[in-house]
Every structure is written in structure tokens, then in C-alpha cells.
Design goal:
Layout: H1 2-6, E1 8-16, H2 19-32, E2 39-45, E3 49-52, E4 69-71, E5 78-81, E6 85-93, H3 94-97, H4 101-117, E7 124-125, E8 132-134, E9 137-147, E10 150-158, H5 191-205, E11 210-215
Parallel strand pairs: 1-2, 1-11, 3-4
Antiparallel strand pairs: 2-6, 3-5, 6-10, 7-8, 8-9, 9-10
Helix pairs in contact: 4-5
Length: 217
């Protein structure tokens, strides 16, 4: 049974969901999971929100104004979420997968890089600053939490969003870091198509060959 679970995941398409609510749901899922719990990948968007990772420093939150700020338990610094940005949260048993945090980060970065390559975009990772970059501009951010052999949180990919609110922070703790998106790079793609294509790449990198897809639960 463990062998089949190792290659199985439930994919949930959740639409636009409040960050604090999803954070609570991820924490509950991870706390209640056991050796027989199937891995899940949640694909969704968030309303505008700044989130602070466990390493966040207040000076990197420059001018939030009326946008909510939420303390998170993921790794990393401050980042921004808004509609038009695809979120992929990976709730997996890293012990069962035999994946440490570095291997998991690399797998997620590689999934994004391969997804972008199929859209004609040459992207790369930076071992000193997790995420995916195109010509030095960040298009995907990563932040994970591993607890009790389970992982949650994941990655965000800028598809077609208003990037101006990134100016209110030092993205991921780097002053002056520029961000970009699929749309800015000339790729017109809806969220549904982006979700499906990115999900396929994530499953390949995580060796998931059997999936069960569930819409807007």
C-alpha cells in the first residue's frame, strides 16, 4: 500500500481562497495525516495579501497600506499573493517520498523551469535564493514547512497579475529585486490551463503517476 501511495496524489482545484483560511487547513491536514494519508496538491489563487515567512524582517515590508499582512509558518521572507498568481501547495509525506527539503525545493523549481521552457521561456534557479528567475527577474517564489515528516506550503507562479504591489515590499527580502509574469513575457494563458500544465510538471518531478482530480471543494 505504501508503494502505491508513494506515486498517488489527490489534486484539488480550489479557486480563489483566503490565505489565513488555507493556512489553517494546511496545518490541520498535516497534523492529522498518518502513514496511510494520500499526498495532495492544492491549486488556487489568493486575494491580495502580504505573507511573512519565518525568517521575515520588518524592514522588508515597505508600504502595505490597505493590503492585509499575515504571519505564516513557511520558510523565507515576505512575498505577495493576488489573483492572477497561481499557487501550488504540496502536502506530501517527505519521509515516504524520501525527500529532504533541498531535494523538494529543487524538484519544484525544476517543474516550473520545465513548464516555462515549454512556453518558450528560458528560466533558471538560484541556489542562494530559492525561486525561479527569467533574466534576473523573479517569476516564481517558493516557501515550505516540514513538520512531523509532512510538508506543506509550496510555490507561487506569476501568470497574469498586477505586479505593481510588489513595489510595496522587498520581494523575498531582496531590495530592488524585480518580478515578472507570463503575461509580461508575452505568454497569454488562462489560470485553468496554467494550473493543468504546471500540475503535470510537478507530478513528473515528484514521481506521481496516479492522480485523483477534484474541483472547487
Amino acid at each position: 500500500m505504501h508503494q502505491s501511495l508513494d506515486q498517488f496524489a489527490i489534486i484539488r482545484y480550489l479557486g480563489v481562497r483566503n490565505y489565513a483560511e488555507i493556512l489553517s487547513e494546511m496545518q490541520q491536514f498535516n497534523a492529522q495525516r498518518n502513514a496511510n494519508t494520500a499526498d495532495e496538491i492544492w491549486l488556487l489563487e489568493h486575494p491580495p495579501v502580504f505573507t511573512l515567512g519565518t525568517n521575515s524582517k520588518p524592514e522588508h515590508l515597505l508600504n502595505p497600506e490597505n493590503i492585509p499582512v499575515v504571519q505564516s509558518d513557511r520558510g523565507g521572507q515576505v512575498t505577495y499573493h493576488a489573483p492572477g498568481q497561481l499557487i501550488a501547495y504540496v502536502l506530501i509525506d517527505v519521509k515516504r517520498k524520501k525527500m529532504g527539503v533541498r531535494k523538494l525545493v529543487t524538484a519544484l523549481e525544476t517543474a516550473v523551469i520545465k513548464f516555462l521552457a515549454k512556453q518558450g521561456i528560458n528560466a533558471s534557479a538560484d541556489p542562494k535564493a530559492p525561486g525561479v528567475y527569467v533574466n534576473g527577474e523573479k517569476i516564481a517564489a517558493l516557501g515550505l514547512r516540514i513538520k512531523q515528516s509532512g510538508c506543506y506550503h509550496g510555490l507561487s507562479l506569476n501568470v497574469d497579475m498586477d505586479l505593481s504591489d510588489f513595489d510595496r515590499i522587498n520581494p523575498c527580502g531582496y531590495p530592488g529585486l524585480q518580478v515578472t509574469s507570463l503575461k509580461r513575457l508575452g505568454v497569454a494563458m488562462g489560470m485553468q490551463q496554467a494550473s493543468w500544465k504546471l500540475m503535470n510538471e510537478i507530478c513528473l518531478q515528484l514521481n506521481i503517476v496516479n492522480i485523483s482530480e477534484k474541483k472547487h471543494e
